[in-house]
Amino acid sequence: MSTQPDLLYSEEEEALRAAVRDLLTDHCEAAGVIARTESDAPHDLALWKSLTEGMGLAGLLVPEALGGQGATHREAAVVLEELGRAVAPVPYLSSAVVATEALLDGGDEELLGRLASGRTVGVLAVGLHTPPGPARRTARLENGALHGGLTGVADATAADVLLVPADDGGLYAVAAEAATVTPQVSLDLTRPVATVTLDGAPGRRVGDAEPAVRRALRAGAGLLASEQLGVADWALTETVRYLKERKQFNRPVGGFQALKHRLAQLWLEVVGLRAAARAAADALATGADTDVMVTVAQAHAGPVAVRATEEAVQLHGGIGMTWEHPAHLHLKRAKADSIAYGTAGAHREALAALVDLRAP
Amino acid sequence: MTDAAELRSRTQELLAAHPPAGTGRLEFLRARFDAGLAWVHFPAGLGGLDAPRSLQAVVDAELQAAGAPDNDPRRIGIGLGMAAPTILKYGTEEQKRRFLRPLWTGEEVWCQLFSEPGAGSDLAALGTRAVREDGAPSGPGEAGSGGSWVVNGQKVWTSSAHVARWAILIARTDPDLPKHRGITYFLCDMTDPGVEVRPLRQITGEAEFNEVFLTDVRIPDSRRLGEVGDGWRVAQTTLNNERVAIGGMRLPREGGMIGPLSKTWRERPELRTHDLHQRLLKLWVEAEVTRLTGERLRQQLAVGQPGPEGAGMKLAFARLNQEISGLEVELRGEEGLLYDDWTMRRPELVDFTGRDAGYRYLRSKGNSIEGGTSEVLLNIVAERVLGLPAEPRTDKDVAWKDLAR
After folding, report:
1. A219 and A320 share a domain?
2. Which of B266, B273, B388 lies nearest to residue A243, judging by beta carbons?
3. Model's pTM, two decimal places?
4. What ipTM is given for this predicted complex?
């Protein structure tokens, strides 16, 4: 490995972060997010509109000629860090990354342009738990119409278009209203999953399923690490802030060595996650060493984000156990993310083949 | 500003004037120092050219391509990594001119006389005394006027003391002040008849460290570094550089201890089990993430954004080395019951990845102790990086002589 990935944030990336954070500070505060989870509109479509039509962020991965911003995974990763920090209930990873990547592999430029604008939300109809690789469950194509049932599809209730891998090897675009989308009671309140039932739904072939799904899930897995970084960084920052203020035994709780060491260890893990997430985003952008970097990031990110949010709940004490405090939103997101696009264990297994450390 | 092109041309001039093939090693190293190509970020006249540190790689690559000798940095790590930056920052002009050149060329090896049997993590509690003889300044701020100091005490964990010509030394010059304020920093001549070096055998069987007994050692006041009583502050420069040196090496993928373990795994399929496989993959991922973290830190330093990640690198490095080498001993099964050699030896340099798995396992136990224990480093991260409150302390305002011991 003679060339090293660029692991820093450029000035432009920092400016992008600041802009996204400002928007989220004003329009995505915790109390509102908590209230929305039990409303009949779990996705914040006004916020989605500000992020996409207002800032053009849905088109970061799409070339300018096709109506996008012509940016790279590095910028999309920064957006995801901030969306993770705020556990923003918007279908960014699903539509602007995963579905967009699937279409970038195929050739439907018109649909791609609509996704890039954010006016159309696209969702790849594959269970969120699916690791990168070919889709395992596909719909049946009979007489030009699609049949089948899928479960655990993230953000499907917000979708306008579903991208369905079918058993003829094609990837089909299906209008959401032609399918039956039913929300499932989801662990992650801010990225709910749903069942998708196709009962003779008409579909339009937009590409080959195998390479499109492979590409889409790899990008999803790689950039998920940046979302997990945002979640973990929120948990660490909030917990440190709280422990400086919270007093027991006539001292700030954060001055007790047992807690200081736990937080210092957590900081070390988050620092590692930042390097791994940047490496994965940079590898997706440059195409160099991508499989290994994405796999390493996903083998590391899940457990770190889960631990960070578990520590946040524990170290906040009783208040961390309440519905009112946002720590549970981050815990639920981190736990769901640890399954999304393959568990850490699944990625380690993939790594065994990639770096030639074979099983017995 | 010196740029890469200029450094390349200066390097070529050096090579033309002193062709490595026809020049003695030491002669070449001295010429390189005098050309300002030793450490380009040092000042002109002291082996550098006031150039950005990141450009050193340009010079090193040119010299390596030309087959030029290097200064064997592993043998003189304490001099390069700890003594040199401290002398540069606090030394007089005369001290810098006297010491930096032979330090860099390796003609003079340095060691570090800091830790004591009673002063480990609490280094500022040290009890080695330096007492002024006539002529030395009596208090902070006074200029030196000749004379010398007489030093008595015991130091410990001193790598390279048996081959060192000089030592950086901290000693107590005023026991009536609180402990951090009564310390002074000296450059100690290891050939003084009052210096006795005894090997300290460690769990690996060899004696890489020493105990150093100082009995009426005379140090001229001209070898004091910094003001009288300012030794603690001067020592911070040394200690910060030590932590960077231990945790900050640039490595390729599988460049650290994970390399030998991965190699054994690939070459010895008969040793594989499912449990070991899971643990191997976890450690491989952690090693790669730690490598990337170090790389990110270097990229931040190169563009002048020093990040707090440095404090964490040594922590991660220590834990990884211990877990990886421990797994390799276990992987080897029956061979893991053996050890290559317990013979008492006094190595001149330390190679953490050298020798066999058993040695690496035992040597890496020191990684979480030397240069600041992991427990102290976690306190440093918690207080200086995260800004958490310090533990309540009872020792800061008490005269050193009145502390419990």
Report:
1. yes
2. B388
3. 0.91
4. 0.95
